[in-house]
Design goal:
The protein is an alpha/beta fold and 528 residues long. The protein contains 15 helices and 21 strands. The protein is globular and about 70 Å long.
C-alpha cells in the first residue's frame, strides 16, 4: 500500500455538486489549504439523469453566483428560471388555459437558474483544479477512519486496483447517498416523511406554452415563456415537473406520496408513461411523441434523509445529501448545499481554539437542524392536498414569505456564521419557527381532505401579491440595521398569518377590501 506524500488539510469524498462547490469555496477562502477530492466516477462529470436537482431557488442561486463567483458562468451556460409555476386540474383538459395556474407574470428581483447539473459539475471540476484542488477520479474509498483527537484522519482509497492511504486534518463526506462516513459512524436517523420519485431527460423541448392557443392565457405573462419556469402539474398525492435545460433538453419527473401512488406504478419509463396517460394525458402525449429522444431514466424511493450529527470540531463533516435532504418540492437541494458548505467552510478556515471551534460546530448544527425541521414541516402529510388550488395558493404564499423572511434573509445578509447575531435573534427565531409549525398544522388539516380541483382557468399572479414581491426584492437591498430588519420581517409574518388562515375555510367570502400584504388575493380566490 502506498501513502500520499504528505497529509492533506482537507479530504473530500465525492466530486458531485456539494463536494466540488465546497472545494472551490475553501480554495477561494484559504488558498494555502491542501485540498483533495476523491470521486468514484472514472471520468469528469457528464450530463445524466442521476444529476437531478436542476432548479435552484434564491439561496442556492446566491451561493453559486455570488459566494462562489459563478454568475458569469451561470449566465453563459444555463437558463434563467421563471419561478415555480403550478397547474391544478391540468389532467382534466387538453387546453392548459382551463386549468388553474399559480405563478408569476414577471421575473422577480432575486434571480434563480435552471441548471444542467452534469455541465455545472464539469465546470466546477475545472475551476477547482485551476485553484489548486487535487481532483482524483476513479477512486473508491474503501475505508474512512477518524482519529480520536482529530489530529489525523485516514482514508483508504482504491484507484486502478491499487490501494493508497490518505491522511488529512479535515475529512468531509460529500458522497451523496453513498454516505460513506455517515454509514461508518452510524449517524442515519429515521425521517417522518416518505416520498418516491422517477425522472428522465429528453433530447428535445417540451414547451407548455404550446398547450393552449387562448390569447388571454398567452398574454397573462406578458409574452414571457412559461417554459422557463419549473412547471408543476399538481394532483392529490403527487406533482410532476417539467424543467427546461440548456441545449434544448427537458427534464421531466414525478414525485409521489407512496401511500397514494406507489413507486411500483411508475418505476420504469413505460410505466411512467402509462401513469401519465391516466393522470396527465397531455404530458403523456407529448412525451410519447418524443420517446425516441429519451436520454436516461432514474428512480428513487425514500428521498428524505436525516442525521444525528452533521459535523464536529474534531475535524469531520457531512456535506449535502450525505447529511440531510428534505424533499425536491420547492427545489431546496442547492440551498442546503450552500448553507451546509458555508458552515463547514467557516469551521475549517476560521482560526479558533479547540473549545471555540467545538462551540461553533454545536451552534451551527442546531441552527442547521432547525432549518431542516422547519423545511420538513412544509411537506409532512401535505402531499394529499397538492391537487387543491385554494390550499396551495394560501400555503405557497405563507411558505414563500417565511422562506424569504427568515432563511433566505439570513443567507443574503451573511449572518449565518455570526454567532453573536444568531444568539441575539434566537428568541425571535424560535417564536417565528413555532408560528410556522402552527401554520403547517392548519395546512395539513386541509390537505387531509384530498381535494382535487378540475380547474376554472384562474391565474394567481404571485408578483401581484405585495408581501411576496416586496420580500423578494428586499433580499437584494442593502441593510442598514439587520437587527431591526429581521424584527420587521417577523412582525410582518405575524401579521400575515391571521390574514391567510381564513382563506382556507369553506364559505370564505371574497370581500371587497384589499390588504396591503395580500392585495386582492381574497377576491381572486373567490368562495370555495
Amino acid at each position: 500500500m502506498t501513502d500520499l506524500a504528505s497529509p492533506l488539510d482537507v479530504a473530500i469524498i465525492g466530486g458531485g455538486l456539494s463536494g466540488l462547490t465546497l472545494a472551490l469555496q475553501l480554495a477561494q477562502a484559504a488558498p494555502a489549504l491542501t485540498i483533495a477530492v476523491f470521486e468514484r466516477s472514472p471520468l469528469s462529470p457528464q450530463p445524466a439523469a442521476h444529476k437531478v436537482g436542476e432548479a435552484t431557488v434564491e439561496i442556492g442561486a446566491r451561493y453559486l453566483a455570488h459566494t462562489l463567483g459563478l454568475e458569469a458562468l451561470l449566465e453563459r451556460t444555463h437558463l434563467h428560471k421563471f419561478g415555480l409555476r403550478m397547474f391544478f386540474g391540468s389532467g382534466c383538459h387538453d387546453d392548459l388555459a382551463k386549468a388553474d395556474e399559480l405563478g408569476s407574470s414577471r421575473f422577480l428581483e432575486a434571480r434563480s437558474y435552471q441548471l444542467d447539473r452534469g455541465i455545472l459539475e464539469r465546470d466546477l471540476l475545472e475551476l477547482s483544479s485551476s485553484r489548486g484542488v487535487q481532483v482524483e477520479v476513479g477512486c473508491q474509498v474503501t475505508r474512512a477512519g477518524l482519529s480520536a483527537n482529530g489530529a489525523g484522519h485516514e482514508l483508504i482509497v482504491l484507484q486502478q486496483e491499487r490501494p493508497r492511504r490518505v491522511q488529512c486534518r479535515w475529512l468531509v463526506d460529500a458522497s451523496s447517498r453513498a454516505r460513506i462516513l455517515k454509514r461508518a459512524l452510524k449517524l442515519d436517523r429515521p425521517v417522518d416523511h416518505r416520498m418516491c420519485a422517477a425522472w428522465f431527460r429528453l433530447d428535445c423541448v417540451i414547451d407548455v406554452d404550446e398547450w393552449s392557443d387562448c390569447p388571454r392565457w398567452k398574454a397573462q405573462c406578458g409574452g414571457l415563456p412559461r417554459r422557463l419556469s419549473t412547471n408543476h402539474l399538481m394532483g392529490p398525492g403527487y406533482w410532476a415537473w417539467i424543467i427546461p435545460l440548456a441545449g434544448d433538453r427537458t427534464s421531466i419527473g414525478l414525485v409521489t406520496d407512496p401511500d397514494l401512488h406507489p413507486l411500483s406504478g411508475y418505476d420504469s419509463f413505460d410505466k411512467l408513461l402509462d401513469w401519465s396517460g391516466r393522470h396527465q394525458p397531455r404530458l403523456a402525449g407529448q412525451v410519447s411523441d418524443f420517446r425516441d429522444r429519451l436520454l436516461d431514466f432514474r428512480k428513487l424511493k425514500n428521498l428524505s434523509q436525516d442525521s444525528a450529527q452533521l459535523w464536529s470540531g474534531d475535524g469531520w463533516a457531512l456535506a449535502g445529501e450525505a447529511g440531510l435532504f428534505t424533499d425536491p418540492f420547492y427545489s431546496p437541494g442547492t440551498d442546503f448545499i450552500g448553507i451546509s458548505n458555508t458552515f463547514i467552510s467557516d469551521l475549517i478556515v476560521r482560526q479558533r481554539t479547540d473549545s471555540a471551534r467545538n462551540v461553533a460546530a454545536s451552534v451551527y448544527q442546531k441552527v442547521y437542524q432547525s432549518f431542516f425541521g422547519s423545511t420538513m414541516s412544509l411537506y409532512q402529510q401535505q402531499y394529499p392536498g397538492f391537487g387543491d388550488t385554494r390550499l396551495m395558493v394560501v400555503k405557497s404564499t405563507w411558505d414563500y414569505a417565511y422562506y424569504w423572511s427568515v432563511l433566505s434573509w439570513m443567507f443574503f445578509r451573511g449572518v449565518l456564521t455570526d454567532l453573536p447575531f444568531i444568539r441575539m435573534i434566537q428568541p425571535e427565531l424560535m417564536r417565528i419557527r413555532d408560528l410556522n409549525f402552527s401554520m403547517q398544522t392548519e395546512f395539513r388539516k386541509r390537505a387531509s381532505m384530498r381535494r382535487r380541483d378540475s380547474g376554472r382557468g384562474r391565474f394567481f399572479d404571485q408578483s401581484e401579491i405585495p408581501v411576496l414581491a416586496n420580500l423578494n426584492a428586499a433580499l437584494l437591498e442593502a441593510s442598514l440595521d439587520p437587527r431591526k430588519e429581521f424584527s420587521e420581517n417577523c412582525e410582518r409574518l405575524e401579521a400575515l398569518a391571521p390574514r391567510l388562515l381564513p382563506l382556507l375555510a369553506d364559505g370564505s367570502k371574497p370581500g371587497a377590501r384589499q390588504c396591503n400584504l395580500l392585495g386582492d388575493l381574497a377576491s381572486r380566490l373567490g368562495p370555495c
